[in-house]
Amino acid sequence: MSVGPPAADDRLARRLGTGDAVVIGLGSMIGAGVFAAFGPAARAAGAGLLIGLGIAAVIAYCNAVASAQLAAVYPTSGGTYIYGRERLGDWWGFAAGWAFVIGKTASCAAMALTFASYAVPGPWWAQRLVGVAAVLTLAGLNYRGVAKTAALTRVLVAATLVALAVVVIGIWTGGRARVANLDGWTSLPTGGVHGILQAAGLLFFAFAGYARIATMGEEVRDPQRTIPRAIPAALAITVAVYAVVAVSALSAGGPDVLARASSPLTAAVQAAGAGGVAPVVRIGGAVASLGALLALIAGIGRTSLAMARNGDLPAWLAAVHPHFRVPHHAELALAVIVSALVLTTDLRGVIGFSSFGVLVYYGIANASAFTQPPEQRRWPRALNLLGAVGCVVLALSLPAASVIAGAAILALGLIGRRILR
Predict the structure, then answer these.
(1) Nearest-angstrom CA–CA distance, 66 and 33
(2) Which of 6, 182, 211, 346 could form a disulfide with 10 if both were Cys (CB 3.0 to 4.6 A apart)?
(3) How far is 415 from 404, CA to CA, in rounded Å?
(4) Does position 81 have pLDDT exceeding 90, yes or no?
């Protein structure tokens, strides 16, 4: 079933250039992995998390070029939800959209709680209230238009990169960082193949932000040119930053220090003898979480908009604000749901669940790109095949609880759609 363009009054405004799109992608990626995912990855693979990071980056690149190629042809809100409908059929599109919405809604709550844990070292109830305040504030900003979203994201990304630069410099000037802390390169595969793949799946959580550029395709100027440039550029910058930080953190105290820590970068700078920059880590973690949360709210709102336009979610969610030109009903509903999760749920273990949903989403993106005819192709089909297989392998390598929960909620969505239709 082909998805036609929305009516003129329901279209979003095209206000984003290439630089804005790259910044929104960076804001979505840089933060979650650096400040949260290195600890679980180190527990899974030890120093082999470096190999996992490389695997995650390769699969992310395959997914990125598939998304860019599809977004250039279908420059409307919804991302793989739209691509799956166009290339594979309604059910594939719904599966992609549902996987994205459930995975990223949980990620929103996780980012809000991460922000609160860095910003408020006080009691848990205070952190929950601060997390809700962050959600409502950023939802309000998104409500007032995408241009303001891009502007604030630019500030948050700059602040995060400065914080990470200070952390890396602090580690290497603290006097204790040694490459030998990796226990020699022979220790890289100590987690075994499964451990390395699990680390890759967990670290993939940090690379998923480039989808935000594609899901906002209806708001990008000259999308056929802008999106294929912005997605690989944002991913390349993120991979470089993650690699530098990962090697530095491992050199500071070895994988065991990261594996035991709830705040891996704080533990790394302390182990390196640079405890004086620990406040920078706290500030950087708070800022990066805000940037990721801001971009997540924008992306989920637009995917919900696309699904509502096609009857896969309530039609009320398809409304576009007459002045600000944003999907305000979808973003209001998201703010309410995420606030409830922040108040009632401990989502520190949600990374695996979120990764499962995102990997399903990108597996369908690769399958969709594989079906594109030669005149629409910008990259070889082999990358689509590698990306699809990689998504399946990484999803099945995640912790069993994450796989079971993700598969169950995905199945519930599919069953619910069948019943309603």
Answers:
(1) 22
(2) 6
(3) 16
(4) no
pLDDT score, position 150: 64
265: containing domain = 10-420
CATH number at residue 395: 1.20.1740.10
For the chain, the straight-line distance linking the first and the last C-alpha, in angstroms and rounded, comes to: 15
**Tens of pLDDT along 20-63?**
778 777 777 776 677 878 888 888 888 888 999 999 999 999 99
For residue 19, is it within any domain?
yes
Beta bridge partners of residue 220, listed in sequence order: 16
Residue 312: pLDDT band with limits 50, 70, 90: confident
Share of the chain above pLDDT 90, in %: 29
pLDDT of residue 216: 61
Q: What is the CA radius of gyration of the chain?
A: 20
Query: What CA–CA distance (Å, rounded) separates 398 from 68?
Result: 26
Tokens 């719904």 -> residue? 94
Helix axes 124-143, 146-173, angle to 10 degrees: 130
Burial of 48 (0-12, 13-18, 19+ CB in 10 A): buried
Residue 134 belongs to some domain of the structure: yes
